[in-house]
Amino acid sequence: MKRYIIIAIVLIIALLSVFLLTQCGKNKKSDNLPDSDIFIPKRDKVEAKNEEQTTVEKVIIKTMDQLNISLKSINKLQKEEAIYFYIAIDNEKDLYFVDMVLSGQIEQIGVKEAYSITDNNNKVIREYFDDIHQQSYIIEIYYSHILPGFKPGERKIDVPYLAIIVDDFGNYDNELLDEFADSHPAITFAVIPGLPHSKTAMNKAINKGHEVIIHIPMEPLDPKINPGSNAIFNKMTSAEATAKMNAYFKELPLAVGANQHMGSRVSANKTLMQAVLSVIKDKDMFFIDSKTIGNSVAYKTAVEMNIPSAERDLFLDAPANSDKVLEDRINDLKKLKDTKGKVLVITHCHDRARLDRLNRFIIAAEEMGYELIPASKYVIMEPEIN
User: Fold this and answer.
1) Which residues contact residue 74 at a Cβ distance below 8 angstroms, ignoring those fewer than 6 apart?
2) Which of 218, 329, 338, 381 is the most buried (most CB within 10 A)?
3) Using 50, 70 and 90 to split pLDDT, how confident is the model at 85?
4) Where in the chain is the domain with CATH 3.30.460.10?
5) Could you tell me if 167 and 349 are in contact, meaning their C-beta atoms sit under 8 angstroms apart?
């Protein structure tokens, strides 16, 4: 009897299993069903928390008002790569407190910080990205006495001025970059866009008080020399050159001007130089003609376009990086002190020997009475822009 009961239970379980498998087969999607019937999870949509906190701009205005900082001290600049806010505060305010409060308010609306830089306790720069509006913001908070260029009455008539630009940053991030960054803060860093460490070089330079300019890669005369695929070539249209320039500034948004890398063939092409300089003009920046060729039209074109600009006087490491060339340049500096009263020098960042000679050159210049200034100040001393 027990045996029959066990057999019956086994049969019931078997029949139940067949039934369940059949139902599963009915519910399973057939392989020939259209893809639209397959469930695909969607990403959560990012939404503003409330009407009042929909933009970073509203948060900035509200926060500055709460901190009793005049809205007149906020300057907004709309650029292709980001919206810039320059916030000048007086010395009675605590720079870090203002930055901390504003950062906290921005984070509360879900906007992410991309990076930040502190410049010798005088300035804080932060970049944010707003997922809601797919918009980048760069916010610079600084003490109001930190202004570009000469202040009224600051320029001395009887003092010779020296500007030094170090070219070709972007290839490395090592101890040598740190040593260049620790050099005289008035030295201007020229960073080549598109290299593995271009953005790092920009950030380290700014963090140590240096200004940064775009070192525009351009086609040279010698076809054997490769300026890189990211360069501006002589065969390009004006539109292509303009697009390249905009991309350079988008990559290095803290740059305040530009000079050319190689570029002998392009800097002799007025049409292309007008396209290059038009971007610089639109961004209210300055241009330095490195003069890698005698018949360069770059500086003349910049002046015609009403762009603050200057020409290179001396290469510190050309025709060779040697003590003999260094001695010659120091002698040139003595002559230019009496004849011109201001000198623009360019060298390169390729090795420690160049850095050592640069430091020796600066010591010799200061002993002659030269005052070292960044390139942004130097261009103000050039012929007046009409």
Assistant:
1) 60, 61, 64, 85, 86, 87
2) 218
3) confident
4) 52-143
5) yes
Structure tokens belonging to residue 100: 């901390």
Q: Which residue has the tokens 């701009």?
A: 57
For the domain made up of 52-143, the CATH class stated in words is alpha beta
- Which residues are CB-contacts of 145 (< 8 A; sequence separation ≥ 6)? 91
Residue closest to 147 by CA, chosen among 89, 206, 85 = 89
Most confidently predicted of 30-39, 193-202, 226-235, 257-266: 193-202
Query: What's the CATH number of domain 161-381, 3.10.290.10, 3.20.20.370, 3.40.47.10, 3.40.50.11540?
Result: 3.20.20.370
CA 352, CA 345: separation in Å to the nearest integer?
A: 18
Predicted structure pTM score: 0.67
Residue 83 binned pLDDT confidence (cut-offs 50, 70, 90) = confident
Q: Are strands 74-78 and 83-89 parallel, antiparallel or unpaired?
A: antiparallel
Is residue 330 within 8 Å of 299, Cβ to Cβ?
no
